[in-house]
Amino acid sequence: MENKIPKKIWVTIVFFGLIGQIAWQMENMQFNVYVYNTITENTLVTALMVACSAGVATLTTIFIGGICDKVGKKREFIAVGYIIWGFSTVLFGVANLKNFETILKFSEPVLLVSIFVVLLDCLMTFFGSTSNDVAFNAWLTENVNDSKRGVVEGVVSLLGPIAGLIVVGIGLVMLDEKQLDISKWEIYYLFMGVLISACGVLGLFLIPKDKKVPKVTNVSIWKNVSYGFLISTIKENKVLYIALLGAIIEGIAFQTFYPYLIIYIQHSLNMENYFVPMVVIVLATSLMCFVFGFLGDKIGIIKLLIPGIIISFTGLIGLFFTKEIILLCIFGSFSIGGLMSVLTLFIAIFRNKIPLSREAGFQGVRIVSVVLIPMITGPFIGSLIAKTDKTYFELGTLKEVPSNYMFLASALITLLIIIPTYLIVREIKREKESAKVEV
Q1: Residue 285 contacts by C-beta under 8 Å, 6 or more apart in sequence?
Q2: What phi, psi does 393 have (nearest 5°)?
Q3: Do domains 1-208 and 222-439 have the same CATH topology?
Q4: How far is CA 240 from the centre of its chain?
Q5: Nearest Cα to Cα of residue 364 among 3, 58, 81, 4
Q6: DSSP character for 255?
Q7: Torsion region of 270: left, alpha or beta (phi above 0 gives left; psi -120 to 50 gives alpha)
Q8: What architecture (CATH level 2) is domain 1-208?
Q9: Model confidence pLDDT, tens digit, residues 116-166
Q10: What's the predicted TM-score (pTM) here?
Q11: What number of other Cβ atoms are within 10 A of residue 170's Cβ?
Q12: Does domain 222-439 bear CATH number 1.10.260?
C-alpha cells in the first residue's frame, strides 16, 4: 500500500467531509434558533429536538452500519444520503406557522408545527447519520492507511470549526439581524438544502469507488449490527476498545465543563463579549489537533497521548484560577485543544484497529463511545460539581451560575486517561512479542 494519499481521496475527504459538517453545524447552531424565534418559545420543543435527534443518530449509526457492511456500497450510501438529507433540509424551511395557517388552513398550528419539526429533525438526522456518520466515516477508514491516519484525523478535526464559521457567515448574509423573518428562513433552508443535495449528486460521480474488500455476507444483518458489541469481539480487538475507553473518559471530561463554559464566561467572569475568546479557542484547538495528528504520523500516535493529557490538565487548572480574558484564551485553548487532540489520537488508533470489512459497523460503537455516553454523564457531573448560590434568568427561567470547580472535576477526570494510555502501550507490546514468537 502506498504511503501517499491520492489527490482524489484528499478531495473527497475535505469536500464531502466539509459539506457534512456544514449540514451538522447548521442543525446544531440554527435549528433551535429558528424554532424559538419563529414557532414557539417553549423550550420543551427544543429539548425534545435535541433528545430525539441524539437517540435517532445513535440507533441509525448502529443499525445502518451493519447493513452498510453487508451491502458494501459506501459511496452510494454517502451520495444518496446527502441528496435526501438536503431535501429534508428544504422541508424544514416550509415548516412554519405561516404556511400551516395559509396553505393548510390550521387556525392554531403551534402544537402541530412543533411536532412536525421534531419529526422532521429526526428524519434529517437519520439521513445525516446514514451518509456521514456511517458511510463517509467507513469510507474514510477504508481509504486511509495507518501511516497517514494521524494527519487525516487532524485535517478532519479542522472541518467542524471551518463549517461553523461558514454557517455563521451564510446566516449573517441571508437572515435578518434578529433572525425573525420567516420568508428569509425559507430562502435560507432552500439554499442550504439544495447545496447539500447538489453535493450528493456530485458524489455519485466524484467519490472514488469502494475498495474491493470482502463483504460481510455470510451472516445475518442482526449479527452484523451486534458484532461490535459482543464480548468475543472485544476480546479479539482489545486495543480498539481500550482506545474507545480513552475517548469515553476524554468525552466525559470535556462535557463536564463545556456545556456551561459560555454561561460561566458571561455570568461568573462577567464578560459579556464571549465571541472573541471562543473564536481564539476554536482556532487554536483546530491548529493543535492538526499538529498532533501530523506529528502522530511522524513520531508515533501513542507517544503524544501523555503530552496531550498534560496540556489539557494544565489548561483546566489554569481555567480554575482565570479571571482575565487573555488568560481565558490561553488556558481555554490548552484545555479544549488538549482534550480534542487526545480524542483525535484515540480515534486514529481506533480506526487503525478496525477489522477488515467492518468499517461501517464499528461507527455505531464509535458514536456510543464518543457521543452518547459522554453527553449523558459529563453534563450531569458538571451540574452537580458546579452548583453555586448565584442565579440568572434565561428565556424566563431562573438558572444557576456554574462555579469554577467544574474545571477541577474535569481535570481530575482527565488524569484518568492515563489508564487506557498505559493499557494500550501494554497491549501493543504484547502483540509485538507475540508476533516475534510466531515468527
Answers
A1: 161, 333, 336, 337, 340
A2: -100, 135
A3: yes
A4: 19
A5: 58
A6: H
A7: left
A8: Up-down Bundle (1.20)
A9: 888 988 999 999 999 999 999 889 888 888 788 888 888 888 888 888 888
A10: 0.80
A11: 17
A12: no
